[in-house]
Write a structure and sequence with these properties.
single chain; alpha+beta; five-stranded antiparallel beta sheet; 11 helices; about 25% strand
């Protein structure tokens, strides 16, 4: 019987160390490794591993100009516990796996894994998130919508790391909410999830709407058609418009967790529930 190959594993102590390792050849990047442990194809001896969970430059949640910078290695539990993070992202953080997963799983790992059902994606999309990517040749930023390209496909180059995510801060006149619908109430992958961000005028009409759905297309998407229809309408008309407005941005599939028809229906239900939770401008939500 052939002897197994030794595991090639490097835990980087700095961003420079991590980038230098990527220059020497391709590596599987892990930060918490919660997705890697569940991947039956991830042979420890079949690939070079790069653990970036100890890199200080990937940590922290702090203001950055008018935005909020969240390091790529920040865990979902840290996001949930930070009062400066907008409500919609904190609510999404609470739905990510089990408590053990949230203590180890990172924001950057969730995005780079690029699952259609990634819990963080809809919330980040309504916050107009941008990603910061770093390589030996410098740094660049992309809108999140241009970073995740498809199922387990991103715009990350082989020599680059995702170092941070920038999100817009929540305004006092905005309300946000996140709804996840799964086949059971316990820890489960979403069938669909929806995030909304509504800004109200004093006359209780909508000044701005940002709505995103995950799990009902290859990548989570903003519902631009519905957003445009909702802006300027009074509170009492919101539910009616959601029920009747087409959602052409969605392209759900049939799989073992739900049919395409179920996903279309649940996407509309999730959006309705999320909007209902934050439609009143004086309901105390942020």
């Amino acid at each position: 019987m052939p002897r197994p190959l030794p595991m090639n594993y490097l835990c980087a102590n700095s961003l420079d160390d991590a980038l230098a390792a990527l220059q020497r050849g391709p590596r599987r990047i892990v930060c918490g490794a919660t997705d890697a442990y569940a991947d039956a194809t991830a042979s420890p001896s079949g690939v070079a591993w790069l653990d970036v969970s100890a890199v200080d430059a990937l940590q922290g949640i702090a203001p950055c100009g008018s935005a909020l910078r969240i390091g790529a290695a920040v865990t979902w539990d840290q996001i949930d516990q930070c009062e400066h993070v907008p409500t919609v992202l904190r609510e999404a953080a609470r739905t990510v796996g089990s408590r053990q997963i949230r203590l180890r799983g990172s924001l950057g790992g969730n995005l780079c894994h690029a699952s259609p059902a990634a819990d963080g994606m809809p919330a980040l999309l309504v916050l107009d998130a941008r990603v910061t990517l770093r390589g030996q040749r410098g740094e660049r930023q992309l809108p999140l919508s241009e970073f995740v390209l498809g199922r387990q496909r991103t715009a990350l180059l082989p020599e680059e790391l995702l170092v941070a995510v920038l999100v817009e801060s929540q305004r006092p006149d905005e309300r946000t909410a996140f709804i996840k619908l799964a086949q059971r109430e316990a820890s489960a992958i979403a069938v669909v999830a929806a995030a909304v961000r509504l800004r109200w005028r004093d006359d209780r009409t909508l000044a701005h709407a940002a709505i995103a759905v995950g799990g009902a297309s290859e990548v989570a998407v903003r519902l631009r058609t519905l957003e445009s229809r909702l802006e300027g309408v009074p509170r009492e008309a919101v539910g009616h418009l959601i029920a009747e407005t087409p959602m052409p941005e969605l392209s759900p599939i049939d799989d073992r967790r739900g049919s395409a028809a179920l996903r279309r229906h649940w996407a509309r239900v999730a959006v309705e529930r999320a909007c209902a939770r934050c439609e009143a401008p004086d309901d105390g939500r942020r």
